[in-house]
Design brief:
Distance between the termini: 74 Å
Number of helices: 6
Largest sheet: 5 strands, mixed
Strand order of the largest sheet: 1-4-5-2-3
Order of helices and strands: HEHEEEEEEEHEHEHEEH
Structural class: alpha/beta
Strand content: 15-25%
CATH superfamily of the largest domain: Glutaredoxin
CATH class of the largest domain: Alpha Beta
Radius of gyration: 21 Å
CATH architecture of the largest domain: 3-Layer(aba) Sandwich
């Protein structure tokens, strides 16, 4: 009887530990956590469409894939229905300084000019950022396989609706091809003007974390830069737009 109780305790402990390891609300339910044994027997290939997270759900730039070789972190691999890796969560194994550090990508100097660029939208219309002077411009950097990007789209759509009669231009910048974006829009609504194949703009702005939103005032100055998924993205951007109008 004592043995059975001990066995039951061990099973419960292992089961609870497994739940804890997968208890990340920002990971889609259809994704499952690979076991350590599965990781040992498979080839790990990190491609640009894989999302990187810390334990709080903050998206990390692809450059942080280097944490896989850092003994202070354990990468947790999540796969989709096709058994391909979709997300990696870097779990910290040692206590760290709890001081909140702002993502350096979100830093900008007050009065900093937004870099000028030319892009083409899905309807083959070309536009130049500097030609939009006199309007507030909202740039959203995203891609079709970015879970956090898709999660905030309903809020961004509501934002665009609120300002449809104001001098505000909403531009979505992605590296995805025109064909891939059009296929994506068959099932998902995104009410921004979308510029596909915009790798040059992404590189120019140094964007590595998705989604990233930037608000540019009527004079072409950056007034807000938000990096990573935010549940209150609409209210944050609304405040910035209202101040810039």
């Amino acid at each position: 009887m004592k043995f059975l109780k001990l066995l039951s305790f061990i099973i419960s402990f292992i089961y609870f530990g497994t739940l804890q390891a997968q208890d990340f609300k920002f990971i889609p339910k259809e994704q499952r956590l690979l076991t350590d044994e599965e990781v040992k027997t498979m080839e790990i290939v990190v491609t640009p469409d894989i999302l990187l997270f810390n334990e709080t759900g903050e998206t990390l730039p692809m450059s942080q894939v280097q944490l896989m070789t850092n003994s202070n972190y354990k990468p947790l691999f999540y796969v989709g229905k096709n058994e391909r890796i979709k997300s990696i969560v870097f779990k910290c194994l040692k206590p760290v300084n709890n001081t909140i550090q702002k993502n350096p990508e979100a830093e900008f100097i007050k009065g900093e000019k937004a870099l000028d660029f030319i892009a083409t939208d899905l309807n083959s219309n070309r536009f130049k950022l500097s030609d939009l002077k006199g309007q507030v411009v909202v740039l959203n950097f995203w891609f079709t396989k970015c879970g956090p990007c898709i999660k905030e789209m309903p809020e961004l759509n509501n934002l665009a609706e609120d300002f449809k009669n104001k001098k505000v231009k909403f531009l979505a910048i992605t590296f995805n091809s025109k064909e891939v974006v059009k296929q994506f829009l068959q099932d998902t609504t995104f009410d921004f003007d979308i510029a596909p194949n915009a790798n040059d703009v992404i590189t120019m702005y140094g964007v590595q974390s998705y989604p990233t939103s930037i608000v540019v005032d009527k004079n072409g100055n950056i007034v807000t830069k938000e990096v990573g998924y935010r549940t209150n993205i609409k209210s944050v951007l609304t405040k910035a737009i209202d101040a810039a109008l």
